[in-house]
Amino acid sequence: MARFLYNLALLFLLPYVGLHLLLRSRRQPEYLRHVGERFGRYPSPQPSPRREEGADLLPSPASGRGAGGEGLIWLHAVSVGETRAAAPIVAALKAHHPGHRILLTHMTPTGRRVSEDLFGDGVERAYLPYDYPCAVRRFLRHFRPAIGVVMETEIWPNLVAICKEKGLPLLLANARLSEKSARRYARFPNLTRGALQGLAALAAQTEQDAARLRALGAPQVEVLGNVKFDILPAEDQLALGEVLRGRIGSRPVLLAASTREGEEALLFAALAKHPLGEALLVVVPRHPQRFDEVAALAAKAGLALQRRSENAPVAARTQVLLGDSMGELFAYYAACDVAFVGGSLLDYGSQNLIEACAVGRPVLIGPSTYNFSHAAEQALECGAARQIGSAEELLEAAAELLRDEAARRRMGEAGKAFAARHRGATARTVEMIERHLPPLSG
Predict the structure, then answer these.
(1) Is position 220 within any domain?
(2) pLDDT band at residue 387 using 50, 70 and 90 as cut-offs
(3) Whole domain around residue 116: which residue ranges?
(4) HSE-up of residue 126 (Cα within 13 Å, Cβ side)
């Protein structure tokens, strides 16, 4: 009955789906690309000579052998954070299972673009369809995956039910569930319980996440850690950081990384009232469609702004450098002296602070950290991070650290040690996947 009502609600919302995509495309035109994929319509693969010999050679969905005749491992990473988190898992699966293809599915154009930057042609990619039964069935019929792995917490009742019906193991990996999200899922107890019980396996990041999932009805939850600790900065990113630092010169640098809507305005207003002297504020918005908006906010605050995309030395009069580039976050961390992690100044739950710690930069975080509560608590306890309550406090704390090289060094070393202590979740997660991965036939 719960799924029946859920599907009725989906049918009621169907006329609004196109409007939703159209509205999103006003800020990000990519939402109007690959629209068919969101309803389970995918381009037909080119037939291979073996397929042309006869229809009896087509694989069955349960065989896990896709259109190319190879085993297919499917990972779903809804957007940017999940896609980056999938990177060490993808690398491990490609190394351990070279006979399998990898499919990455997304829900946002930004996540898809990050996938292109990270993996190039090394994986296949598509949008996961909306949770309409017919669309889900078309998706599974087209790709014929051997196994599905959903990153973090994306619980789609029809997807789970249809995978179980077809005998396709669907796993939830690197799962996190804040108290806020748990309360939202608890409003639909039967639907949530049924979906969680339909999963073949479930791995949580922390014991707190596992407890919330069990309270919602998950029968068995493993605690395997957070794979984001296993994401290491690539050498080319560190080298790019040196290039960026060279363009900045000897000025101290405060980085505001992955900022969300509303936070930049607060930072710019505080900076206009309390200048950082010769220090440079580098702002990297979380969403690329907001680059122009953030530039306009800086101009409105009367701040001299320069764009990273200009690829020019930073002028002495420049107060704000806008990081209007994708896939370079580690480079920005490498180029800064102090890092503020966005999404924490306002009630967004924070973005990933682990990356800044891994590079060895002192971290400042705001009061909202529910998406990374466990990591934030531990980073604060070990001295890798400091918590601030407002944009003004952020600038005060940053100014203090920029004057104190020894304090920056202590926090940076604590951050590196903190990140190193928690590595290993990728190996445990891949082992869980392998327990459920059917062997290649033939």
Answers:
(1) yes
(2) very high
(3) 27-39+64-225+424-436
(4) 20
Name residue 203's beta-bridge partners. 222
Question: 45 in a domain, yes or no?
Answer: no
Residues composing the chain: 442
Asked whether residue 57 carries a pLDDT value surpassing 70, the answer given is no
Are both 171 and 120 inside the same structural domain? yes
**Residue 18 pLDDT level (bands cut at 50, 70, 90):** confident
Residue 98 dihedral angles phi and psi, to the nearest 5°: -65, -15
**196 and 316 in a common domain:** no
Does 404 map to a domain?
yes
Cα–Cα distances in angstroms (integers) from residue 143 to residues 69, 79, 149, 159, 346, in the given order: 11, 20, 14, 14, 40
Residues 6+ apart with CB under 8 A from 157: 2, 3, 6, 131, 191, 194, 195
Q: Within 10 Å of residue 428's Cβ, how many Cβ atoms? A: 15
Section 300-314 average pLDDT: 95
pLDDT digits (tens, 9 = 90+) for 224-279: 999 999 999 989 999 999 999 999 999 999 999 999 999 999 999 999 998 999 99
Task: Determine which helix (DSSP H) or strand (DSSP E) holds 340, and give its type and residue range.
Answer: strand 338-341
Look up residue 287 and give its amino acid.
H
Count up the domains in the chain and report the number: 2
Q: Judge whether 19 lies within some domain.
A: no
- Active-site residue 328, yes or no? no
Query: Domain check: are 195 and 314 in the same one?
Result: no
Q: Would the CA dihedral through 264, 267, 269, 272 be positive or negative?
A: negative
- Following CA atoms 139, 140, 144, 148 in sequence, which dihedral angle do they give, to the nearest 10 degrees? 110
- Report the chain's mean pLDDT, rounded to a whole number: 91
Which member of 52, 53, 82, 179 is catalytic? Answer: 82
332 and 392 part of one domain? yes
